[in-house]
Inverse folding.
């Protein structure tokens, strides 16, 4: 495709996950591969709410993951980021004592910030007065601190950034990280997203606007992307982190390259605060920009990891856009059927999953897809995963404010 700079690839040399499907890549990927949904009513903080269930991370011990001192000083969303980053760096085989810290960057996506801290301390203010509010309130809730804490933990003295493009934040972060490598500003970038906002105020806000599923009788079946009976998304928490390096640098040190981020596209709907533009014009611009950035054509795409939130409007709009731009050839999936929608972390978690899909030639199924919406004229993988060659894959993310981000992955 003509136009733009020469294609540039960023090698994915390490990945880390903290999701409702499991703590760590192995546990999360196993459940995602199996299409085993994670939504449950056992989220005490949400008890009694109209949509009082979600995909919570269980089995996460912050003391074990990041140490006792940091565990009580850092909000849950930053705890997830630290744990996923540590796993990703270990997976990449990078030794902090042997890299140039000034050439290492951190870019993380986050949508809400320290929601649990905010809610707890607000209650303290109202019940006990201002003198009882924690002096750690601001650094615990500030949206930039997830990247800040990761940079501190690993001594990364290059750019430390947080992207906030709503539910596209994690995808945007990976795209920005790749561009830091391409510009020469960094040699290694820790990139991804994190979110932990299963708290009453946030969940009530989404519920009041009609975005959440009300399927309380079967919460495990509530997140059902592209299903004719979908009725809203299921909120989740978690983090996904990738270590990115230039392809030539990764190969020179003998690193395993799981996949290559070969394209990135971003756009705006410029249409509505929460609803997607009905024709998907903005989303299409982002997809075409990612293809152009990679020097590829629509017919080259084997797989799409869809945004697929399980909301009636989003799924229909995205499906029409994919069909219009890519046809019905690519195998499409949405992992939100398993892990729910983790807002600012979703795109990063899905970027990790897409990298694994390319590496392992396996497209995981869309959980809970029992009867595909006839309006979704796509090859949506359901019931069981699919073994197939995946040379080129797209990962879509779309956020409130009409913010669209798309990553293109190729085989390493």
């Amino acid at each position: 495709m003509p136009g733009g700079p020469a294609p540039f690839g960023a090698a994915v040399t390490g990945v880390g996950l903290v999701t409702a499907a499991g703590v760590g890549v192995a546990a999360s990927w196993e459940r995602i591969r199996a299409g085993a949904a994670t939504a449950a009513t056992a989220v005490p903080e949400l008890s009694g709410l109209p949509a009082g269930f979600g995909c919570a991370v269980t089995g996460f011990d912050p003391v074990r993951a990041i140490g006792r001192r940091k565990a009580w000083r850092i909000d849950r969303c930053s705890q997830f980021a630290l744990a996923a980053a540590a796993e990703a760096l270990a997976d990449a085989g990078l030794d902090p004592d042997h890299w140039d810290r000034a050439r290492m960057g951190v870019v993380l996506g986050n949508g809400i910030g320290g929601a649990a801290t905010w809610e707890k301390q607000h209650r303290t203010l109202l019940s006990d007065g201002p003198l009882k509010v924690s002096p750690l309130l601001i650094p615990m809730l500030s949206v930039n601190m997830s990247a800040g804490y990761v940079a501190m933990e690993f001594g990364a003295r290059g750019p430390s950034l947080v992207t906030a493009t709503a539910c596209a934040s994690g995808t945007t972060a990976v795209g920005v990280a790749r561009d830091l490598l391409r510009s020469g500003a960094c040699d290694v970038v820790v990139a991804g997203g994190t979110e932990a906002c299963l708290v009453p105020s946030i969940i009530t806000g989404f519920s009041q606007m009609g975005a959440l599923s009300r399927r309380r009788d079967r919460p495990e079946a509530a997140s059902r992307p592209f299903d004719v009976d979908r009725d809203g998304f299921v909120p989740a928490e978690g983090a996904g982190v990738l270590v990115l390096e230039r392809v030539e640098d990764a190969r020179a040190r003998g690193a395993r390259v799981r996949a290559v981020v070969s394209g990135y596209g971003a756009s705006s709907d410029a249409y509505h605060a929460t609803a997607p533009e009905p024709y998907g014009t903005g989303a299409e611009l982002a997809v075409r920009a990612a293809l152009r950035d990679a020097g590829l054509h629509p017919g080259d795409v084997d797989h799409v990891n869809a945004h697929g939130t399980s909301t009636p409007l989003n799924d229909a709009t995205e499906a029409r856009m994919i069909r219009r731009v890519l046809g019905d050839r690519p195998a499409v999936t949405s992992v939100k059927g398993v892990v729910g929608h983790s807002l600012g972390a979703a795109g990063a978690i899905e970027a990790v999953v897409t990298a694994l899909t390319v590496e392992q030639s396996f497209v995981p199924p869309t959980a809970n897809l029992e009867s595909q919406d006839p309006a979704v004229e796509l090859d949506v993988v359901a019931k069981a995963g699919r073994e197939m060659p995946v040379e080129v894959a797209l990962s879509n993310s779309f956020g409130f404010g009409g913010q669209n981000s798309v990553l293109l992955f190729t085989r390493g």
The chain has 14 helices and 14 strands. The two ends are 21 Å apart (CA to CA). The mean pLDDT is 95. The longest strand covers residues 10-19.
